[in-house]
DNA sequence: GGTTACCGGGGTTACGGT
């Protein structure tokens, strides 16, 4: 007969916490905890991406023994030769194990200061004798060590705990072996077949549909599977269902998205699969706020035909035999450019290819429509495109930048026009008025010829201008923390046009920003305004993105609040461009500020480079007449961005979105000594 | 100072959406 344990042995030694208390959130994540438990499962060491290896021990104690699911994992990251090798039923004493919430589950993880002691189950004496002799040798140096109180508690715990839920020795060994077998289950959606289970990396392409007990997702990895539903791209044909306004203009033009109905926004073709998720995954989708645009890994996704027996679907169910809650939906980090997941990277690359092809196709449709429908004089109004292929833009800008670098050391003749260089110096000049003129196409809607205003066209121009204003008002803010998009995960990520509101961008904190980019706006007026514009000079806001600004300034962006040298260089270059505009604007700002203080009206319109009536910076912060800065020739391109639009009649870029015409500067360089 | 990682096996609930 085993002697009854005495009272002292019965009590968890002070400084230790029970498994039950941990699972009941009695301690916060991040705390370092001391825990004593019995080994019920072990996943053998596997290499990690770093130099450490990783193994996992699952523990339970007598606070949680009546429920087989109440056990706690300790994740051990250490060099391979310091890995513990516990056996079934061994007692583990942990010091300073960090509590974490990983994969939506509470678990322990080793910390710098964690010590792990293992007592061999078959050597633990019956209480009240302490288990000191059962201690396995330590593979590494420790800072804490168990005393007699702990040794005695180990004996008590091992002999008194309910072991009926422990696996058999054979089962334990089997699980341990299986834990190292990693079969590649990853599949691209193009390769999924009826009846298989697969891991996939996909993007949510539609808002999750939540019925309470289940959530259905539409996902794509931008591969095609013949067994998926075919989403037809209606494209330009979609406006046949819309009505023209009394003047024969359509208010909107669908362009790469479906109008009004807000239904399918792509990808089109057989690239998307429906996935039905059940608990516990639904909870994660809600709590993480997964939504359109989120990239996720779905593990062990069951693939089979849906009820209509025509299209393959995915099913994400709970893991039946998992020893604890197992979450098979994991959000992917598209901002991790350091060590991007290769599957994610490939999927993002395919998405970019898909978007490029779609854009080219849509542009092609426009070009064909315009070539067929427009009179020649209309073409002249467009400002004679220098190139109508958006793809060439970057090449041209790179060339300009390269030339800028080449000419860096060359001497510059200091005349008004020669201090700013521009690409395409043999191309005709457009006026601001030309550039601002909307472009129409004649087309056939339900048998009627209507004149249709395009929301924007991808066209390049050259113009003689001078700068009359700029945004943001402080030069320090001309450089911003680099905004990350999902395409940044690709090593050949390209410059993107400045958008007013962009989706999928991760907000970057100024304090933690590693990379900076130029991002500012210039308001331009004609250097030699046409006669009819003399009374009310037309102006145009152009966005200057990072590449254009590098070309313009021959400077790289940095944190200008810290980098005074770069700020001063920026100020000098811009002086060559706009003379004393900054000083005058600053004086004007001061004057206005004083006036506003007096009037208690400090609200200012937001910065904006569009030509839209509602959104453009209408207020002239500086009177153009006061400006005596230098005229120069520059390249301007027109492009479109999507902006939120609550009015469904105006939402021509899909649900809640409208196309907004924008202008950007490119291929222009300030020469300097 | 505090990341790294998350086995196997064989699938019901629900009935919508393109």
From TrEMBL:
Could you list this entry's UniProt keywords, alphabetically sorted. Chromosome, DNA-binding, Nucleus, Telomere
Q: Which GO terms describe its cellular component?
A: nuclear telomere cap complex
Region of interest (Disordered), ranges: 366-410, 598-627
UniProt-listed Pfam families: POT1, POT1PC
Compositional bias (Polar residues) at which positions? 615-627
- Name the family: Belongs to the telombin family.
Name-wise, this protein is Protection of telomeres protein 1
Q: Which organism is it from?
A: Trichoderma arundinaceum
